[in-house]
Design goal:
Structural class of chain A: mainly alpha
CATH topology of chain A: ABC transporter involved in vitamin B12 uptake, BtuC
Helix content of chain B: 25-40%
Largest interface: A-B, 23 and 35 residues
Number of strands of chain A: 2
Order of helices and strands of chain A: HHHHHHHEHHHHHEHHHH
Shape of chain B: globular
Oligomer: heterodimer
Number of helices of chain A: 16
Strand order of the largest sheet of chain B: 6-7-8-3-9-10
Radius of gyration of chain A: 22 Å
Number of helices of chain B: 9
Structural class of chain B: alpha/beta
Largest sheet of chain A: 2 strands, antiparallel
Distance between the termini of chain A: 25 Å
Largest sheet of chain B: 6 strands, mixed
Strand content of chain B: 25-35%
Radius of gyration of chain B: 17 Å
Chain lengths: 344, 232
């Protein structure tokens, strides 16, 4: 390769752009400031009611992140996110009330059980085509949803009444009352959203993320390049279910209650719509989409417009704004702020 | 290097390959496969590379029966292929996809492949946005990574002009000689095949018609009757 060509290639990759070396530290400082500000400012500025809606939005956003990650990286749409989200809450409640496990042990038990369930389910379904995968996740979710309503399990699940989760002791120094308090729960939900968002970002940027995208893009070529195309999809499925499980545990710790409603298709579709509203391509979009959805639901839900809102949002964001709110803003910023290619 | 024995592939009642026997000999030779549409050329490549399981016969690679081996196994043991319809990762940059495959196959001489396929200028571009001719070079580059011993290409000249096809074939011939690998090329453009290949095989209606040097094939009366006609 000639020197001229090498220079052009490096410039295209951003290596020679002015300020490239300082861009990362500036971004890290800004992100740290945003994180600190977001964790503590709302606690002092917002009412408890608003904080409660925002926390619920963050939880929905994290669930949306799990759906969006699999959709964007592996080309698979899962409609069973709620079965993990609600299921982990049931396991946590049952482990404490029936088996007298400590809250921390019950959390670990619930999380590990859901991960093992994800491995088993994923092993069966990630080989299938995207449509079959979507229907199978829906079927598995609905089976679990109806399973908790079975009369034979009523002693454990309390059927349609749901379970009150009121644990004794503390988790990471916080009692049940602390976790139910909106001002104390907000920094936890905010931190979890950042951690899960960064984890998803790190996986996307890793070699594993590139392998997932390549499999989504052209599975046959991947096999003809010597790659196993099954295991990466299974790992991705387990990864997103681990995100949904963390999200479900935070939900049950905050609300102190778990019911069949949290396992229902409605929660899964809300997560999907939240991801579409925010934008599925990154970590910020789905999480922001969850918060937007929660506030919109609060505005319109009381008037009975939730289903209408969901339908309109899906049409608008799929047809008019396929990148979602965050994706569209990022694209507009790129167009207007970055120097145009070829400009001197 | 590669022995194909009595290979049969059926699509329902249609026999796309009907007992093909063919031997691809040693390194440094470019072996062209030609034949009319429906002769079974692409099916032969698919059966040899594991894309389509044969209904009968055997494929032996370096003396080992690989008829039931997986695609991954074949690739990891030195058998690579490119496709008639360009098969690349359109959502990744050229650099991302080449690096991904090179790291997986532990090939630390990726720069050679980039230089040989003249892709240096396009490394930062998403593969879906580059010109078709460059995409075809990326397709071949993906097959060249890992220093395969046997390279099978299905119509690498598809979509290219006659001049571009000839140039690509000359490039491939030099590459095969320089790297000491064996290569099989299925191609419609008989001029490019006769100009650059060391050995040519002809298929017709799923059967092996003839194998020989380009000159011998041009003069073969069966090949002229079945395929070349006045073009010979």
């Amino acid at each position: 390769m000639s020197n001229g060509t090498a220079t052009r290639v490096a410039a295209r990759n951003g290596a020679l752009l002015p300020g490239a070396s300082t861009r990362v530290p500036v971004a890290v400082v800004l992100a740290a400031l945003l994180f600190g500000l977001g964790a503590f400012a709302p606690v002092h500025l917002a009412s408890e009611f608003v904080l409660r809606i925002a926390s619920g939005g963050l939880l929905l956003g994290m669930l949306a992140l799990s759906v969006a990650f699999l959709m964007c990286q592996a080309g698979l749409v899962a409609l069973g996110a709620a079965s993990v989200y609600g299921g982990v809450g049931y396991l946590f409640a049952i482990a404490m009330s029936e088996w007298d496990l400590s809250p921390t042990s019950a959390l670990l038990f619930a999380f590990v059980t859901v991960v093992l369930y994800s491995v088993a389910l994923g092993a069966l379904i990630v080989r299938t085509n995207p449509l079959a995968f979507m229907m199978l996740t829906l079927a598995a979710g609905e089976m679990i949803n109806h399973g908790v309503m079975l009369e034979a399990l009523r002693d454990y699940t309390s059927g349609a009444d749901g379970l009150v989760v009121n644990f004794k002791g503390a988790i990471l120094g916080m009692t049940a009352a602390d976790l139910a308090n909106a001002t104390q729960f907000w920094p936890i939900a905010w931190s979890a959203a950042w951690l899960l968002g960064l984890a998803a970002y790190a996986v996307r940027r890793s070699r594993f993320g590139a392998i997932l995208r390549a499999i989504r893009d052209n599975e046959e070529r991947m096999r003809f390049s010597g790659f196993d195309t099954y295991l990466p999809r299974l790992v991705a499925f387990v990864f997103v279910n681990a995100i949904a499980a963390i999200c479900g545990l935070l939900h049950v710790l905050n609300s102190g209650f778990v019911s069949p409603e949290s396992l229902g298709l409605g929660v899964s579709t809300n997560a999907l719509v939240a991801a579409l509203i925010g934008g599925v391509a990154g970590s910020t979009g789905p999480i922001a989409g969850g918060v937007l959805f929660a506030f919109a639901q609060d505005q319109f839900g009381a008037r009975g417009f939730t289903q209408l809102l969901t339908g309109v949002a899906m049409v608008v964001f799929i047809v008019a704004l396929p990148r979602g709110v965050v994706g569209s803003l990022v694209e507009a910023a790129r167009r207007n702020l970055l120097p145009k290619r070829g400009a001197r | 290097m590669l022995e194909i024995a009595n290979l049969c592939v059926s699509y329902g009642r249609v026999r796309a390959l009907d007992g093909v026997d063919l031997t691809i000999r040693g390194a440094g030779a470019l072996h062209g496969i030609i034949g009319p549409n429906g002769a079974g050329k692409s099916t032969l490549l698919d059966a040899v590379t594991g894309r389509r399981p044969p209904s009968g016969g055997a494929v032996r690679y370096r003396g080992q029966d690989i008829t039931r081996k997986s695609v991954r196994w074949r690739r990891r043991h030195g058998m690579a292929r490119s496709f008639q319809r360009t098969s690349i990762f359109t959502d990744l940059t050229v650099r991302e996809q080449l690096t991904l495959v090179a790291r997986h196959l532990r090939d630390d001489r990726l720069d050679d492949v980039i230089e040989v396929m003249n892709l240096g200028e396009w490394l930062g571009e998403k593969a879906g946005r580059i010109a078709y001719g460059v995409q075809r070079r990326v397709d071949v580059a993906l097959a060249l990574i890992g220093r395969p011993e046997l390279l099978l290409m299905d119509e690498p000249g598809a979509g290219l002009s006659a001049h571009e096809t000839l140039s690509l074939f000359q490039h491939l011939r030099d590459l095969v000689r320089e790297r000491g690998m064996a290569a099989v090329v299925v191609e419609h453009d008989v001029d490019a095949v006769f100009a650059c290949c060391d050995v040519v095989s002809v298929l017709d209606l799923g059967r092996h018609l003839a194998t020989g040097s380009p000159a011998a094939i041009r003069a073969d009366s069966r090949v002229i009757a079945a395929y070349l006609g006045s073009a010979a």
